[in-house]
Amino acid sequence: MKKILFYLVQFTWALPQNLVGFIGYLILSRKNPHERFHNAFVTYVDAKNFGGVSIGIFIFIAQKKSDDWRHDTRIHEYGHTIQSLVLGPVWPLVIAIPSMIWCNFPPIVKYRKKNDISYYTLYCEGWANLWGMKWSGEKFITEEHLKRGRFGKPI
User: Which sequence spans correspond to the domains of the chain?
Assistant: First the structure.
């Protein structure tokens, strides 16, 4: 029953991001490996300069990274999936846009690197880690997540 309710809410309340994610899944899952991760669908993408992204229940992760990195990224991105469930139609404004800017805007990336600021310091990224662990029941294993995954602090 919980699973049915999860998908019902994702495809009503959180419909916009799930439609976009579903289109990406249809295109990318044909030629890339994919699997289920709890209630999400993970597709492993062979793309240069790509880490991971969650669009509703559809998660896309770089394929050519270490097993530990992929493990922790699945948990983190699943946290964004849960944020989508809770925030519904405001998720793009509250989570996706700030996350994309924090991850990709060159002056911010440069500032983070120069000042050794954890990617997970941003509210939506640290929150995704905490909820990813809580709702997946899994633990992080990489040093970056363990030492700086809770809003830049140890988990």
Answer: 2-148
